[in-house]
Each structure stands twice: as C-alpha cells, then as structure tokens.
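Lab notebook, page 48
Experiment: co-folding of the full assembly
Goal: obtain a model of how the components sit together before planning crosslinking
Operator: M.T.
Materials (sequences as entered):
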Amino acid sequence: MNVTLQIWRQEGPDVPGSFKTYEVAGISEEMSFLEVLDVLNERLVTQGEEPVAFDHDCREGICGSCGVMIDGQAHGPQLGTATCQLHMRKFESGSTITVEPWRAAGFPLVKDLVVDRSSFDRIIEAGGYITVDTGSAPDANLTPVPKPAADIAFDAAACIGCGACVAACPNSAANLFTAAKISHLNLLPQGQAERWARTENMVEVMEEYFGSCTNHGECEKACPKSISIDFIAIMNADYLKAKVKNRRLVAQ
Amino acid sequence: MESPVSTTTEQRRVPWPLAFYRSAVGKKWVMALTGIGIIFFVLAHMVGNWKIFLPDVAGVPDIDIYAEALRELLVPFLPAHVALWILRTGLIVAFLLHIHAAYALTLMNSRARPEPYQGPRTYVAANYASRTMRWSGVIFAAFLLFHLADLTWGIQPMAPETWARGEVYANFIATFSRAPVTAFYVIAMVVLGLHLYHGAWSMFQSLGINHPRFNAVRRSFAIGLAVLVTVGNAIMPLAVYFGFVE
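Observation: model returned without errors.
Model output:
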C-alpha cells in the first residue's frame, strides 16, 4: 500500500516548524506505524536528508516512549494501543495521514516529533513512590491486599507514562496520568502511610506544568492502556481529604 | 535538588480552604458545589413561576401573591425581605465563585497549550456541550443580565413599556408578547440545557462521586435535568406568546 505522510518537521525548540509531505510507497499492511517511519527515514538518509526524529523503544506497547498525534488523535485512530501497536491495516491505501508531536506547555518540543516529557518525572518525584527500608525482600503475601483493591490498583498501574492523556486533552491536563499514579499507590495498604502527602504534592506539582480537567473524557479514549477517568474522581476526592488531613499532622 | 514538598509548605501558610481554592482541583470542587446551588435555585425558580398557569385567587394572579410572599419569607421570625436577601446573597456569591473559577481555569488551560495543534483534531469523547461550556456560560450570563433588566429591575428598553413593580403576571404577559424576547428566552434555555448536559454530569467527577453502581445513572441524571430545565422553563414564554396564557 501507498500512503502520503504529512509530518511536522522542526529543527529545534526555537525554530519555527511546518508540515512536510512525504510519499511512502510499497509498504505492507502488516507494518506498524513506526515501521513506516523507519522506511521513510531509511530513504531520507540515503537521499542525504535529515531523518524524522521520533521517540520509540520497546515497540510492544509497554515502555511509553512512542506517541504522536496521528490524524488528530493521540496514538492514532485505534483505541487502547500505543503508536507502535498501530498497524497500517487500519488505514486505506492512498490516504493522507497527518503526524504531529504532542503539544503542551508541559511537553516542550525537542525536535520534529520528539517532546520532553520530564515534567512527568517531576510529578512522580513529588510522591509517586513508597518509602521503605531497603534490604532483603519482604516475604511474599506478608501484607494482605484485598483482591478488588489489587485489581483496581493494577488497572491504574498499567499507566506507561506516554503522555497521550495530556496530548488528547483539550486543556492539556495531566489529571489522568497523575490520578493513575496516585491511585495505584493510594489503593494499596503499602501506600497508606504517605497517602495524603502524596496526593497533595503530586496534584500541586502537576498543576505547575499542565492545565485543568474539564471532564471531556478524551484522555481515557486516547490512553493506550484504557485507564478509566474514574481514577480522576478518586484523586479529586483524595485531594480534598488531603487538604484537611495534612493540616492535622503537626509533624509534617 | 529542591525538595518537591516546598510547594505545599508555602501554601500551608494560608488557611486550607483558601489553599484548596488556589489549586485547579479545588476550583473544580467550587464550580461543582456552586453549580449545585445554582441548579437548586433554577429548579425552585421554575416551579415557582409555573404559578402563571394557575387561576387568579380573589381577582389577584396567583404568581403576584407568590412574589409578594417571597419578600415576606420567614416573617415574623425575620423582618420582611431579610430571608429573601440572605438567599439572594448566597446565589450572587455562588455565581461569582462559579464565574471566577471558570475564568481562572480557562486562563490556566490556555497557558497549558500555547501552541495549538496545527493539523485537524479528531475528538472521540468530548461532545458539543462539553467543548462549548465557556460559550454557553458566557451566553447564559448575558441572558441573565437581560432577564434581570427585563423582569426584575424594569429597565427600558429590555422591559416592556407597561412594566410595573409587583405586577408580575402583567409584566410576564407584556414581555413575552414580544417575539424577539420570547425567542431569546427560549434560546437561552436551550443554551442552559447544553451547559447542564455536561455540567450536571461533570460535577460528579469533580466532587469525586464515583461508584460502579452509581456511575451509569450520572449521565441519565444530567440528561433528565437538562431536559426538565429547558422544557420546564421554555414552555412559559411560549405559552404566553402563543396565547395559552393571557
């Protein structure tokens, strides 16, 4: 099959970018979207042109590195998958596909389709962990976890931090990412000790970089792990409790 | 490296409700709570106004008696007008907070994406109502000012020429005998219905009211409320304009 790619090309953060059109012919419908970019880049390199910069790593939907806007949708038209899991059989031969980087103040553009997502690391640093003594591993099943809590925490923990939620959100809000990271720990017994400090700190660091949630639900649809916006409601409830409870803790 | 806790120690110097309101999540709580307050007012206002459909009591329109009774709410426990003004103050504060939170969040959101997408966007979940909340809010606020000038304050040329304080029924008939005014009221109710279609669902999320057993009825509730408010209010100007109420 043949496709026309309209790709955002931008040398760096301070230079203006624009769409460039590339015809890519003779690709197989079994190829993933990233492999089409590989084919294009191979050609660009042999022609002595600058290849298209894009992030990728595992190419099996678990690392969260890849992610671009494809025809105005984060990770493309297929729901519940990352860009690397999107195959060309989802497209018609002869179609024009627009490819654009994530756009958000919290994700400054590095080059072409690559953005800097380290703002997500700042959110995690604010509380997305459990403080424990290192040493020998504790016995398995030492801490009983109710099965429903384990299941729901696992749904939240499926977040790979790709940033599609921010990219898809009309407000560039990172509430789904932050809510998933908070809920994943707040729902488990091991996360209780730092629950309120975690919630307050992570929400507030998030708001330094990103917009606010208006409950469109676009993030849930864009998420390659289909993480539910129910977690945002859990975070909203926990944030109010955190504001009340944290002020009671004199030592904090 | 700077400790990430620094942001919260800074904010804890102010009382916690204020610190809460400073955050976007807190502003959404306030939007939801004030929204609920305004919804209660809208419903009470609608049911009260349905009195235009009732027959006169001893030659006086029922709605005129009701309007006068509102001023004397809780008399003799409170002097006249006091209870009404307490309610009005609450309503005005709710509106101001709702508008301020919306304004502040809109600014925050426009800063969060300084460079918009250059290609076309495809929305999967966002609907017309959710994406036009700011517009429906602003249009409704403009309508609200017109409505107050028309039927509460009697300011020309919004109010009918025969407007008189306390003559609720007569003012009602006079204002909706004008086609453009009736049309504006009906359009404003459709706009309010759109605002409620998203808002009355969205408030559950903002307040963290989320339960597997309850989630399915949240959307139905919002649709029901939007239809009730739009139809329940729009029938009044339409009934006057088409001569069912004279």
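Interpretation: Residues 17-114+126-241 of chain B form a domain with the 3 helical TM bundles of succinate and fumarate reductases fold (CATH 1.20.1300).
Next step: discuss with group before ordering constructs.
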